[in-house]
Amino acid sequence: MGSHDLGVAVEGPVELVTSCAPCMMCQGAIVGSGISSLVIAARENDTHSLGLGGSRRPPEWVERLRQQGIEVTENVMRAEAVEVLREYADRGGRT
After folding, report:
1. pLDDT digits (tens, 9 = 90+) for 26-82
2. Which residues contact 73 (CB under 8 A, 6 or more apart)?
3. Domain span holding position 73
4. Which of 4, 27, 47, 61 could lock onto 57 through a cystine, CB 3.0 to 4.6 A?
């Protein structure tokens, strides 16, 4: 199985901007992908309150990413992201 390091494939830092906190599998992929910064809108509790959350991560997951050298910024346009996710859930969306 191969791997993809975006940090090698593109020039400069790689930033991932996401509407909600990544699941555990995505978190693992972020660490191995060369992503240097992660910007998160909605939090894990937001998705769970809407019935969209999967398994819960350990509370120190953000710190673990930071220890891997990944800058993490949370709550960017959180209210707007929660509203989009609410509309998605209301229309029968699932994770």
Report:
1. 898 999 888 999 999 999 999 999 988 767 888 899 999 999 999 999 999 999 999
2. 37, 38, 39, 40
3. 13-90
4. 61
